[in-house]
Amino acid sequence: MRIEKNVILQVAHDIFLKKGYKKTNISEIATKAKIAAGTFYNYFDSKESLFLEVYVQENERVRNDLISNLNLNDLSVDQLLEKIFEYTINKVTHNKILAEWNNHQISSVLHQYYVSDVGKQNNTFHVFLTKTLRNILKEKKFDDDNIDELMRVYDLIYYLDMNITSSDFEDYEKTLKLLVKYFCKGVLTTKEDN
After folding, report:
1. Range of the domain at 25
2. What's the pTM?
3. Fewer CB under 10 Å: which end of the chain, C or N?
4. Domain check: are 99 and 133 in the same one?
């Protein structure tokens, strides 16, 4: 049974990557996976639930690739942020699965998942950024109360990113990048740095 589900996921991934969410249908996935259309529903409740699983796997793959290519010791905060945003924009723009983040037909399903506790815990990139920021703040000798306050601001930025798309706010990506940049610059500038 697990083999069938993996086949469905792989076939769906390939079709979603080629056609996007809207132009993909369950019958095409079932045909290419060599299963009956009814068998599909033994594994997934809907096209939306299948797409969510495919999206999460693709997002993890892309973000883990980014994490493995970041060398935190060789980059300033500005360079790190620039690399993260540049990589993200390039990968999302050219990936029909990840580009669906802004598609109102499916984006609410994606956003609900990533704002949930399970979504946050399973979001390797979010966990990586949270841990990295906490470590930087500890190295800069911030006390625990200040770190907790600053992490709440980071949580707000995460919340905004999970609830707003580029179609909701003009120049969203550019504005988010500025918000993150100046948040990090402000946080990481201590009296010794001035």
Report:
1. 1-44
2. 0.87
3. C
4. yes
Question: Which whole number is the average pLDDT over 144-169?
Answer: 88
CATH number at residue 36: 1.10.10.60
Q: In sequence order, which ranges of 45-106 are alpha helices (DSSP H)? A: 47-69, 77-93
Residue 190: per-residue pLDDT: 56
Q: What's the average model confidence in pLDDT over 180-194?
A: 70
Residues 66, 34 share a domain:
no
DSSP H helix total and E strand total for the chain:
10, 0
Confidence band (pLDDT; 50, 70, 90) for 191? very low
Same domain, 112 and 34: no
Q: Are residues 3 and 63 in the same domain?
A: no
Q: Could you give the CA distance from residue 119 to residue 70 in angstroms, rounded to a whole number?
A: 23
Choose among 120, 101, 109: nearest CA to 159.
120
The tens digit of pLDDT for each residue in 8-34 reads 999 999 999 999 999 999 999 999 999
| Residue 132 backbone dihedrals phi, psi, to 5 degrees | -60, -45
Tokens at residue 119, please?
Answer: 């979504």
Burial degree of 33 (CB within 10 A; 0-12, 13-18, 19+): buried
If asked whether residues 74 and 134 sit together in one domain, one would say yes
- As for how many domains the chain has, the answer is 2
